[in-house]
Structures are given as structure tokens and as C-alpha cells.
Amino acid sequence: MQEPLRRFLLVLCEGDAASADDLAQEALVSAYVASGTFRGASSFRTWVFRIAYHCFIDRLRARKIRTEPLDTFSEETLPAPDLSDGGFRHEALYQALRQLPDKERAALLLFYMEDRPVKEIASILEIPAGSVRAYLTRGRRHIKAYLEKWKTR
User: Fold this and answer.
1) What is the value of pTM for the model shown?
2) Fold topology of 1-66
3) Fold that domain 68-153 belongs to in CATH
4) Which residues of the chain does CATH 1.10.1740.10 include?
5) How far apart are CA 95 and CA 124, in angstroms?
6) Are 135 and 104 contacting, i.e. CB atoms less than 8 angstroms apart?
7) Is the Cβ–Cβ distance between 111 and 143 less than 8 Å?
8) What is the DSSP letter of 68?
């Protein structure tokens, strides 16, 4: 469970491995400390992911970080399209993910990278399943728009 949790947090933290590791550790310690309160209403994995997501949100609130609206793509936020190194193959996708609002990014990551069902994502993010589907739809649309703009550069 540690590796999927760390991967989830790594993308939420926009590739900052140190922050992702700190958050994963914080979440696992919090889960251990609160293990007596686990009621089994969801799977243990879902419960730990929810704790990790709350740790991430708490850190954002503490730093008062604001995400830039997707409508304000600037030339600086777009990577150069002629990157030939294979290591940058998915750079445009990661750049697009960085532009998404937190809940859209989290929903997409859980759905596509962690292969979690909508119901479980709703439980982790503590939002209705319909909202998860809306975040997935909007997130896909935003990523598509970003990638199309990146391609035409």
C-alpha cells in the first residue's frame, strides 16, 4: 500500500518527492495512531488514502497555495514540444496535471493511476459519486485542452 500511496501523493505534490514522502509518512503515522477509530465503513486502503488526502489539503491550507485557473495558460507553463529525450515523454501530461484544481487532479489520479472505482474515490475525497464523475469529466476536458494547446506550440 505504501507505493500506491506515495505515487498518489507524488503527483499531487507536483513531483516534489520530499513533500510526497513527508505526507505519506504523516498519513501512515496518523492512520496508525487513529487505527482504533477505524470502523470498517470502507476498506482500510480507502481510509488511509482519505487520511493522506486530508494531510495534503491541510498542508495546502497551511501554505495558502492557490492553483492557477486553467483558462490562464501562459507560454511559461507550456513545456517545449520538441523534447526528444524519452524521459520527457510524459512531461506534457504532468504539466497538464499540475494545472488542474486539486480535486480534479486527485480524482483523475485515483481513477486512472490507482484504478479505484468512482464509489471509492467519492469515499476518499468525501464527496458524492456524481461530483467525482463531474471532476473526471472536467479534468479530462482540461487536460485535453492543455495538450492540444501544447501540441500547437
Assistant:
1) 0.72
2) Rna Polymerase Sigma Factor; Chain: A (1.10.1740)
3) Arc Repressor Mutant, subunit A (1.10.10)
4) 1-66
5) 24
6) yes
7) no
8) P
| Identity at 30, one-letter amino acid code | S
Query: For residues 17 and 2, is the Cβ–Cβ distance under 8 A?
Result: no
Convert the pLDDT of each residue in 32-89 to its tens digit.
999 888 888 888 999 999 999 999 999 888 876 454 454 444 444 444 444 444 445 5
C-alpha cell at 112: 486512472
Q: CATH 1.10.10.10 occupies which residues in the chain?
A: 68-153
